[in-house]
Amino acid sequence: MLHAIFLLSAFVFLGTYLAYFLYLKRNVGRPWDIEVTEDFEPEVSILIPAHNEEANIEPKLENIRNVYYPMEKMEIIVVDDASEDNTVNNVERFRLRHPDLNIKLLKQNPRAGKATALNKALQLSTKPIVIVSDADTRWPQDILKKAMPYLADARVGAVTGRGVNVNAGESWVTEAEESYLQLANFVRFAESKIHSTIRFEGGFCAYKRNAFDLFDCETGSDDSGTALKVVLNGYRSIMLPEIVFYTSFPPSLLPKFKIKVRRANQLVGLWVKCLKLMFGKHLSLPKRIAIPEIFLFLINPVAFLILNASSIALIIFQPFFPLSLAIIFLISALLLLKRRIFVELFIDNLILVSSLMTFLFGRRYIFWKR
Predict the structure, then answer these.
(1) Which terminus of the chain is more exposed, N or C, with fewer CB under 10 A?
(2) Which of 7, 110, 1 is nearest to 327 (CA)?
(3) Candidates 3.20.20.105, 3.30.360.10, 3.90.550.10, 3.30.565.10; correct CATH number of 33-147?
(4) Are strands 236-247 and 156-165 parallel, antiparallel or unpaired?
(5) Do the bridges between strand 156-165 and strand 205-208 make them parallel or antiparallel, or are there none, so unpaired?
(6) How many CB atoms lie within 10 A of CB 110?
(7) Which residues, other chains included, contact 240 with Cβ-Cβ below 8 Å and sequence gap of 6+?
(8) Could you tell me whether strands 103-108 and 74-81 are parallel, antiparallel, or unpaired per DSSP bridges?
(9) Residues 38, 207: Cα–Cα separation, whole Å
(10) Predicted structure pTM score
(11) In degrees to the nearest 10, what's the CA dihedral of 256, 137, 83, 47?
């Protein structure tokens, strides 16, 4: 019985990853079926949500000021979510130094969370393209020149990019995170080629204003949740690997765990929502994308728990059984030959388990922290 449980959980856990990876690999090289107009240069509203960002907000505004894009076609809306430091004063100071920039400042008090702050900024936005960027990320100068041409296609409603960790080599934690990012970006890019990805990143998210009504407040995922809204409204949401933004990642394990549990909790909520929509026949995201993602976020964490529990039980109670010896040999080989990938895979699935548990117990992450 124990052997059967192990083999079944291993089949579900590993089979889901392998089958989806092979399917995506077959599609990632297909050409874009998108009309890209290189000279498409619409007016844009850049929304920057901020909470206690006194160290980042001025460098962020200076970074946007240096982007290659007509200044008269940009408006920048900083929305402060009840900061307790000098964030607001620093925005005001920067605005006085650069009157040529169209910078608007909104204050939200009491604190209500990022999505609510973005919706407040959205009410003030006047441009057809709305771009969201976190205060602690930086853009290359050509980011808008590369991203906007894809939004010229009437079928594309949202575009995101990929975060590049500037401290990727700082510790084993950041090195392992780099392995995860490579796989995640491959998945997002391949899904975009097939139709859409809803795994968006807050460093750069560009939306057509008529493709959604409000930023998602339901799941706590203002980026990915809003991308889902775009898809539900009949548009495509895509990730472009050439669109990069720069960020940093915690070099130690505990901060990484907290950040990724919060993020994964939001994505679990998002895929639960997709599952409900699919049962109600209201999900316009293709099933060939939705079903594997639902398995990865909702079923695989359970299979991972069962797989680990049955492995430990086999090794303890039947240490010399061929299957137990095979498990010991495989784990030892992976630790020797592919340690970074193996450890990251284990940690990420442990994070998924924690996120699923926190979601089932009603925990939601609405606020973000410095």
Answers:
(1) N
(2) 7
(3) 3.90.550.10
(4) parallel
(5) antiparallel
(6) 6
(7) 146, 147, 150, 159, 160, 161, 189, 192
(8) parallel
(9) 18
(10) 0.91
(11) -130
Residue type, 248: S
CA distance 370 to 353: 25
Instruction: Using DSSP, state whether 197 is helix, strand or coil.
Output: coil
Residue 73 carries which DSSP code? Answer: G
CA nearest to 156, candidates 8, 308, 242, 36? 36
Cα 363–chain centre separation = 19
d(Cα 297, Cα 316) in Å, to the nearest integer? 29
Give strand pairing partners of 245. Answer: 163
If one counts every other C-beta atom within 10 angstroms of the C-beta of residue 112, the result is 16
d(CA 272, CA 292): 13
* Domains of the chain by residue range: 1-31+154-370, 33-147
Going residue by residue through the chain, which has 370 residues, state the pLDDT in tens, using 9 for 90 and above.
888 898 899 999 999 999 999 999 999 999 999 999 999 999 999 999 999 999 999 999 999 999 999 999 999 999 999 999 999 999 999 999 999 899 999 998 898 888 899 999 999 999 999 999 999 999 999 999 999 999 999 999 999 999 999 998 899 889 888 888 999 999 999 999 999 999 999 999 999 999 999 999 887 789 999 999 999 999 999 999 999 999 999 899 888 888 888 889 999 999 999 999 999 999 999 999 999 999 999 999 999 999 999 999 889 888 888 888 888 888 888 778 777 778 888 888 999 999 999 888 877 665 555 5
Q: What's 168's DSSP letter?
A: T
